[in-house]
Design brief:
Layout: E1 5-9, H1 16-27, E2 36-40, H2 46-53, E3 58-62, H3 79-84, E4 87-92, H4 95-101, H5 105-117, E5 121-126, H6 130-134, H7 138-149, H8 155-158, E6 162-165, H9 179-196, H10 199-204, E7 207-210, H11 215-222, E8 229-232, H12 239-250
Parallel strand pairs: 1-2, 1-8, 2-3, 3-4, 4-5, 5-6, 6-7, 7-8
Helix pairs in contact: 1-2, 7-9, 11-12
Length: about 250
């Protein structure tokens, strides 16, 4: 039985005061035992958000990590530094990093290995562009990202990875994938896990859906058998909306 996992990606939003205030509101949510929850603020606010969250049930995640342990890598942050400020998770290969910053599967794969070695749980994002979906290439794209970003992970490591299916055309657009569209890809991803590893790995890895998840569509998406939670952008910036999505994941 996979425990649903809801993560909020704050992207490059909020300031220090807003971040602390939002984290304090979220730390009051009664998350319970049946769902995991994390928020991923901008890296400069990780430390103060960590303090605001305290020892509560809402955990901390980063929006990225670098793959080296330390040294002359100006502007980068290592897995150990993230763990040091209380991070448990790191989002890797988000579509904005793939398509705006230009990250490749090869780079993402190095980050996945480094995150796991540093004790972080990677949330690895995959997803197709609109033109790729319209050209019938969705699963080719997902397969290539899966194979490239998750290369050379043995079964034990893979079981510590979370996958987020995020169709790029649905991110920040308000244009959500239908539950059927999302479930089709999630179920294919699970088959990919089974073919690449085994039934046990396929049944244990959590696959989140991301792309305009809101309180009014969360229930239908999360009711799908292969959707194990949500990676939430815009709606994670409002405590009430994020709380409603967490509630939907508990049903
Ligand atoms: C995201 O940032 O990963 C995301 C899915 O954003 P939104 O929920 O705003 O579409």
């Amino acid at each position: 039985m996979r425990k649903p996992f809801v993560a909020g990606n704050w992207k490059m939003n909020l300031n220090k005061a807003n971040s602390v205030a939002l984290a304090s509101q979220l730390s009051d949510i009664d998350v319970g035992e049946t769902v995991d929850v994390a928020i991923c603020p901008p890296s400069v606010y990780l430390d103060c958000v960590s303090t605001a969250l305290g020892d509560g049930q809402v955990r901390l995640g980063a929006q990225d990590v670098y793959y080296q342990e330390k040294g002359a890598f100006t502007g980068e942050i290592s897995p150990a530094m993230l763990a040091d400020v209380g991070c448990r998770y790191a989002i890797l290969g988000h579509s904005e990093r793939r398509h705006v910053i230009g990250e490749t599967d090869e780079l993402i794969n190095k980050k996945v290995h480094a995150a796991l070695a540093g004790g972080l749980i990677p949330i690895v994002c995959v997803g197709e562009l609109l033109e790729q979906r319209e050209a019938g290439q969705t699963m080719d794209v997902i397969r290539a990202q899966f194979t490239g970003s998750l290369a050379n992970l043995d079964a034990a490591k893979m079981e510590n990875v979370v996958i987020a299916y995020e169709p790029v055309w649905a991110i920040g657009t308000g244009q959500v994938a239908s539950p059927e569209q999302a479930e089709e890809v999630h179920s294919d991803l699970r088959k990919l896990l089974e073919n690449s590893y085994n039934q046990e790995v396929a049944q244990s890895v959590r696959i989140q859906y991301g792309g305009s998840v809101k309180p009014d569509n969360a229930l239908d998406l999360l009711a799908q058998p292969n959707i194990d939670g949500a990676l939430v952008g815009g709606a994670s910036l409002k405590a009430d909306d994020f709380a409603a999505i967490i509630k939907a994941a508990k049903v």
